[in-house]
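Q: Joint fold for the lines below.
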Amino acid sequence: MESLENTKVRKQNENHNTIINCDNNYFGEGYFSVIAGPCAIEDMDMAITTAREIEKYGAVALRGSLYKPRTSPYSFQGIGLDGIEILDAIKSETNLLLESEILSTNHIQVLSDHVDLVRIGSRNMDNYELLKEAGKLDKPVILKRGISATLEEFLLAAEYVMDAGNEQVILCERGIRSFETYTRNTLDILAIPALKELTHLPVIVDPSHSSGKRSLVPSACKAALAAGADGLIIEVHPDPLNALSDGSQSIDLIEYRKLMEDIQKLVPLFNKEFLTTTVDA
Amino acid sequence: MESLENTKVRKQNENHNTIINCDNNYFGEGYFSVIAGPCAIEDMDMAITTAREIEKYGAVALRGSLYKPRTSPYSFQGIGLDGIEILDAIKSETNLLLESEILSTNHIQVLSDHVDLVRIGSRNMDNYELLKEAGKLDKPVILKRGISATLEEFLLAAEYVMDAGNEQVILCERGIRSFETYTRNTLDILAIPALKELTHLPVIVDPSHSSGKRSLVPSACKAALAAGADGLIIEVHPDPLNALSDGSQSIDLIEYRKLMEDIQKLVPLFNKEFLTTTVDA
Amino acid sequence: MESLENTKVRKQNENHNTIINCDNNYFGEGYFSVIAGPCAIEDMDMAITTAREIEKYGAVALRGSLYKPRTSPYSFQGIGLDGIEILDAIKSETNLLLESEILSTNHIQVLSDHVDLVRIGSRNMDNYELLKEAGKLDKPVILKRGISATLEEFLLAAEYVMDAGNEQVILCERGIRSFETYTRNTLDILAIPALKELTHLPVIVDPSHSSGKRSLVPSACKAALAAGADGLIIEVHPDPLNALSDGSQSIDLIEYRKLMEDIQKLVPLFNKEFLTTTVDA
Amino acid sequence: MESLENTKVRKQNENHNTIINCDNNYFGEGYFSVIAGPCAIEDMDMAITTAREIEKYGAVALRGSLYKPRTSPYSFQGIGLDGIEILDAIKSETNLLLESEILSTNHIQVLSDHVDLVRIGSRNMDNYELLKEAGKLDKPVILKRGISATLEEFLLAAEYVMDAGNEQVILCERGIRSFETYTRNTLDILAIPALKELTHLPVIVDPSHSSGKRSLVPSACKAALAAGADGLIIEVHPDPLNALSDGSQSIDLIEYRKLMEDIQKLVPLFNKEFLTTTVDA
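A: Joint structure:
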């Protein structure tokens, strides 16, 4: 891809792979790292419950979103910076890393002080001002692919972050928009090996937004692993039917436990190590 | 569309149409208003030349972009706030309105003081923080449809601006992403009458980004008018072959003159009035 | 487009345009020719009524489909060859040309003896065996673009017909599949001027399948004319609410009359002549 | 899905799965069955070589296409019925099943007498006349998904075959058309579990057309298995660089051997049995 010449994002040879060390947890070749948690943090109780359970069943980080970009201004938008005390509580009660979405250059600094990884969502993949701000952080950035971004555009968005000084970028395939409506999006499974050909950066998959359906999440996770992904970011909710957002695509804690048991058996077959915090605890 | 119930953007009856008055130029039912100019302001000379010519051949506003969101961080990004003196010069030399893209909450205030209309580009249609800031302005906002936004998502993005207090929103169809690659995007011509069924807001069309090819721009403009659009935003460059961006889709001044002659003949057939600044001069 | 080199479909210079003479009615540059009628012929009465009215308000041909390819095997599939007597009756009662869809090499010969133009539908654009059979006919073939065919694939499908010996091909843009669901398909309006750049063949537009909504049909027709189309194929039904197929996208006879009045006023502005059978009657 | 009510294709309960017995080889739940071979049979030598090798490394059937639907009429179209002696030779020299594409109702009877499974390609998924003819055969039909067919349309196409009397239908996901061009198509990996929710029919995957790139084929195969597919149809050529068609997406015999070794290790983890002809030999 011509536009990738002389970029930082470009893979230079077959063995050029970046492994990102996030507080002794790893994202990249040889590891399989799971981030899990609710679509959005709703309150202290659900957050703590979810965090403890996912840690027990196997995860390296809690998905701890305080801000939710929503299509309608009248939908639940997240609890915002009020949730920071919840994030701090989880930090002290578990060994999980904390991961959270940043939406705006306004809260990027405050929020990033309380989390270990920041996420830039699909809707903001083209928000170059935000990418440049994330490029000034000294923390890994999970960059989700835009809903209709080509791989080239996706990689050049990552280049904005890297060019601004932050080389710790984790790419996340999360489904693209197609004509099919049975699934919420179309999981572009071959984006994983394609990205691995083009870039040295780690690649993880969001099985929840790509499928939009709880029943398809386990297949999406296994396919992602089989296609070469370095990890997952999964929506898990203790009570999906009553979730404030994305309930239909969130699995519950029992489903999560079963899924992690299955995944852990498969991971070694793909020459990867399944990471858990308990190893370090 | 259920999600539009109780929104400000929703059309309430067949005759409910908003006409936006921008310094005695109008956008909406009964008018056909053309914004034209280069993809990006490059320097004083080209800007002044272009402005004078487009005013002469028929236009209400200059497309005066100082910031250009670009796929690659290494492409020309616009001249930024250094261009404000150019905008001011055009203001004093012509009767054209000034229109310019805002990318970031950082420059929105400074820039909007020097222009008459602000534009939120396709890449930022989902940048809700920016939409909310635009909602605080007392100026019309041209909101471009995201490259793969449904009409519902497009209208709910407009709702973010309106809900934040600014009801002067002009919608802009600019082509959507499909599998076809002969054109840069696919001009969704039926989005125009569809939007007219759903909302009372004015709808204009960008024939340049939707086609990506200079040769198709005239057909795109005429089709837009015939489908019910209230205006156009056209890329015009005095020397497209040497443009710093988007040259292949920019028409030159001679093509612009010919196109406006054609358009002016057609406009009355569609019960609209072609607006020019010379009316006010 | 490299694949078009040395093809019969390719335009050789700016003035190379094919005008197809179908019994002294013309399809191509300088003319605007409307084919109208129900999605499918249902019975003698509705067919005769529709034919007489559309002829009165302006049309050169009746859309007289006896076969309907349907997504489900349990939907109405057309009345088949039983309808031939209806086609013959219309032939004797009006001056309209007859146009009908061919689905299979089995009925192509029988059916084509009773009609003036044969249509190959979108679903069969890639049915090369059918294209080759149509290539043996001595009648114009209306070839509809596949629902996700690129312009290149569309033109090469036409090449199958031409290469088999029949150079009377009329291309029909009928909407492509995109993510947008408000319209049934996405009318690719710029396909019209794009095809005009690439090929010398006439191009018409189907406003009914492209929009899927009666209310959008007039805008689609006007936009098609403005973008350079040489004609239309419109679904018209005397009682759309009770149509056996495609009722929601069919206009009624009153709407047809109004639409043709509007179109006839516009056609001269685009340097075309609106054709009617009454000229010959 | 409402349109599937009262269809033969619909899954009636979680345990309702059809296993198709093709001469003591099985397609369906509990088995993993690989069909492999060149895009098209080119000559006796390459066909015999390929057949022997793929049988040795693990396959149940040879992909033995005599007809190739091609976008351009001037591309290689297959060797046609002249290849029947080659198919017969392979039959006598190996224990492989023979699988071949049918394009036309003209050759369906002759061809099907010499093969064990017939394939209806993507371009013909909507060719209902062909589907109905395949419905009269007493052989399994592999039905490939149209390039932009929804799952609903895909299943209703299968219903055409079943309704015509043939209930031995194997569905094949082969990639859908999206905006992404790095891959030839977009492998809709979640179509596999989605189809398994909706229908009792077996589902296999074509990793070659979906990816369009040899390097991505192994990942596509493993992801298909992990997502629940019942088998694969893979393009394998002894000398891909000199293949008459689809060389860039064909793997060679050495790559095939390696891939089958990997797949055989994984299959048991997914509660399936990898089928080979040598079991029966």
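Q: Anything notable?
A: The longest helix of chain D spans residues 44-57. Chain D has a mean pLDDT of 95.
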